[in-house]
Amino acid sequence: MTGQDFIDRYGSVALVTGASSGIGWAFAEELAARGFNLAVAARRTERLDELAEKLAAAYGTKTTVIAADLSDPAAPAALLDATAELDIGLLVSNAGFNLKGRFEDKDPAAMAKMLTVNCHAPMQLAHGVIPRLKARGKGGIVFTSSVEGLIGCPYSTAYAASKALVISLGEGLWGELQGEGIDVLTLCPGATESEATAKYAEEYGMVDKLQPAAEVATLTLDNIANGPTFLPHAHYGAQFEQLLAMPRRDALTAMAGALKATVV
Q1: Please, what are the domains in the chain?
Q2: In 3-state terms, what secondary structure has residue 17?
Q3: 159 catalytic residue (yes or no)
Q4: Measured distance CA(166)–CA(160) in Å, rounded
């Protein structure tokens, strides 16, 4: 798909959540480079203002900055209201966070917050955006999940469960929206350069095989029509393909053994 064909199908405005850092920031930069205007949402509006200034200077991008704390169940509806007048042709539902370590050691309130951000927000945003995309007759949705959503991951149990919902959501919508002119792709990245990965490394040790966030964003947009799921990193794609080919008990036992020493 050529640059103009891409923006004709998914433009003129892309809505990106979790755009203040990491993959979300990279999506915003890549979309601006492709000629999109943007609506960006996150809690840290000072980071979003910085991003908007950078993109305006580099590409002449018009960016709508929206303060949104997606751990608030009412936030998706407010975000949809705030973008009602924009010609959104692409939703990048990227906001999310993880919790590592023993499941029983995790704070119940933190797990509830994670479920709201990782699961409730993408479901509600998609529900609100799909009628707009159908009215346009074209568009796209990208959900950011994780390779950890492909199988229950010991010592990442709640996070893996939340990302499994995102994969199911994306796959179901990919099937439902066939023939509607709306592409749905669920991104399943492995370890990616981000603030979250840096914090993980501080607590548990260095993470191997990191993929640049910019590369993840570029590859994802290049493959948006090749749903339902996309694994951008060859190493993690091969690793999880091998795990999923094993009997489930064997795969989970191997994962638990490998991870126990690093996260407990």
Answers
A1: 3-263 (3.40.50.720)
A2: strand
A3: yes
A4: 10
